[in-house]
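Annotated sample (chain length 411).
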Amino acid sequence: MALEMKVPSPGESITEVEIAQWLVEDGDYVEKDQAIAEVDSDKATLELPAEASGIITLKAEEGDAVAVGEVVCLIDTDAPKPGGEGKSSEAKESKEEPAEKEAAPEKQEPKEATKKEETYATGSPSPAAKKILDEKGMEAQSVTGTGRDGRVTKEDAMNAKPSMGTPGTGKRGESRKKMSMLRRKVSERLVSAKNDTAMLTTFNEVDMSAIFSLRKQYKDQFKDKHGVSLGFMSFFTLAVVRALDLYPAVNSMIDGDYQISYDYKDISIAVSGPKGLMVPVMRNVENMSFRAVESEVKRLAIKVRDGKITVDEMTGGTFTITNGGVFGSMLSTPIINPPQSGILGMHNIVDRPVAVDGHVEIRPIMYVALSYDHRIIDGKESVGFLVAVKEALENPEELLMDNDVKRALEL
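Output written by the structure step:
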């Protein structure tokens, strides 16, 4: 019996997917629930498991866009399971190598037409011409000489112009590869965000000394008890939650002629994975502790890395945090993640000289950036929001931990 495997719906509003990679070959024997393909939707990359055991026949090629519900392969469930190695590899081993073809007789190349007689001087530059050509980075052979017997003169070298189309000495290969459906959708969303929002970015700097001190003192206890590291994301996430309470317009979106504001904080976090940038969502972060945030960040990052993030985990979000600092970025203007109205950019931490109480001190400083939609967020709110984030990060014990560090860290 041939079982038709159809593309399942990966989520609401998704009507087609793209076959990113077949994990099996045509004619292979597959086991039930074995991953047979990776498919890209416009939101995530998902694995397609076999619905039954049997011999598989592929009906779509890698790179094909197939509609949800369309048949992509057949599985012959009556086929016996081959012993030893898989059928496809066994068949490959049994094939005999074809006899080598007899070498075709070499074609007689037509003799070149007799070249115009040249002398030792043809194409040779004079000393002055050679100096000029060297300064221009040109070879004498690329210049037609007008001197006696074709010699390149000083005037020829001065008048010579390097061709922009002349290849250099390095490699000049290129490759062409179709972007995945996910990457194409990300591209569309980024362009849409730039075109459809009144996006502005405001900047500030954060002295990370207090956070460094807390992490140094409590990170070992925190990891021993909770099994996760005490990183920067929990501090930034909870600082953002506090700032969103103070400036609710930043936790809003535009829907046509209406502004929708949310009384919950679903924070999207940008995570780099094998298929590109993913933005999974942490739900109701206003109810989370430091431990809960760090655990959720770790869980979502692992799912992105392993390609197991689901569409539901990528959907929604009222505000986004992105950390370009892990790649060494000093400063950037992050692009809003539509339909959200704000995104906070974190960057690398560098020791910088700063004025403290009239004295110059070296402190670990991070530049932060808030990109926002000016249609519903005014300058006063955007600047106030970023200052509130800065205040919480520079005084976390009071503003994020209610002056009880061990209780806040659940130690």
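Annotation: The chain has three domains: 2-78, 127-154, 199-408.
Annotation: Residues 110 and 400 are 85 Å apart (CA to CA).
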